[in-house]
Write a structure and sequence with these properties.
The chain is an alpha/beta fold and about 270 residues long. About 30% of the residues lie in helices and about 25% in strands. Strand 1, helix 2 and strand 2 form a beta-alpha-beta unit. The strands form four sheets. The chain has a four-stranded parallel β-sheet with strand order 8-2-1-12, with helices on one face. A three-stranded antiparallel β-sheet has the order 3-7-4, with helices on one face. It comes from Rhizochromulina marina. This is FAD dependent oxidoreductase domain-containing protein.
Length: about 270
């Protein structure tokens, strides 16, 4: 689902995590390697393009390798839902709150950098949980729930414009990659990663990456970031990294009649 799932979902803060990790990585690269070489990011979703965007802003060249197209999986079809305080009291509380603020800043930065295609539909909105009986309603729908045609059993507000926001996930992913391409020469390569090649390790040191094999061709790389979602384990076979598992979620997008905007936009 990329990010933006149900209450308590930790994945909403991954964009913030990506920038925090890359801040450290870019700083280390710049401090220790005046010529950092090439970074290859495996995965053209919201995390992979966020990493490419942040590195590009810091003058680091990046190649994003994507098997299908940008935002082809969960990053293009998730709800893009952001909640400020739904992870309060959990280990990800501070990261989630940082992420909420960063999304608003990022939307403004992309709009300024890409006047023609930087609008990621960021907006603040209300969120509500509704329980219905499943039977046709015998009363006229209220102004707050005009979209409901079955009997309302219960309704509870889960957040307002001070704590809830939404972004179009595909537009965000595409805009970050477009901004990265404007920066330090980032590029997208469509193909399947078949292997990550390493140099022989020196005594007492870990092996160093030297290339990524994409459709039989070696792409030189000094650093490789694997951001392929549930497919990351396939890419990382033999590298000794912990496995990553996917989990299915479902969402429904509703197109109101005549393009009208409903009184509430996100429902659980």
């Amino acid at each position: 689902r990329g990010y933006g799932g149900g209450p308590g979902g930790a994945l909403l803060c991954l964009l913030a995590a990506g920038e925090l990790v890359l801040r450290g990585m870019a700083t280390a690269v710049q401090h220790h390697h005046p010529s950092p070489g090439r970074v290859v990011v495996v995965g053209g979703g919201v995390i992979g393009t966020s990493i490419a965007y942040q590195l590009s802003r810091r003058g680091v060249g990046v190649t994003v390798v994507e098997r299908e197209s940008l935002a082809a999986a969960a990053s293009g079809k998730a709800g893009g839902f952001l909640a400020l305080d739904w992870n309060d009291g959990s280990p990800t509380e501070q990261l989630t709150r940082l992420s909420f603020r960063m999304h608003e800043e990022l939307a403004a930065d992309l709009a300024a950098a890409l006047p023609d295609k930087g609008d990621v539909n960021y907006r603040r909105l209300w969120c509500e949980t509704i329980s219905v009986s499943g039977r046709a309603s015998t009363c006229t729908a209220t102004e707050e729930h005009e979209w409901v045609d079955t009997g309302i059993v219960a309704a509870r507000q889960m957040g307002d414009e001070s704590t809830i926001a939404q972004v179009h996930p595909r537009l965000l992913t595409e805009a970050m990659m477009a901004a990265a391409e404007q920066g330090a020469g980032a590029e997208v390569r469509i193909g399947t990663v078949q292997d990550v090649l390493t140099q022989p390790a020196e005594e007492g040191q870990d092996p160093k990456v030297r290339a990524v094999v994409v459709d039989g061709e070696e792409i030189p790389a000094d650093h490789v970031v694997i951001a392929a979602g549930p497919w990351s384990s396939e890419v990382a076979q033999g590298l000794g990294l912990p496995p990553i598992y996917g989990q299915k979620y479902h969402s429904i997008l509703v197109r109101p009649r005549s393009g009208r905007v409903l009184s509430r936009a996100v429902f659980f």
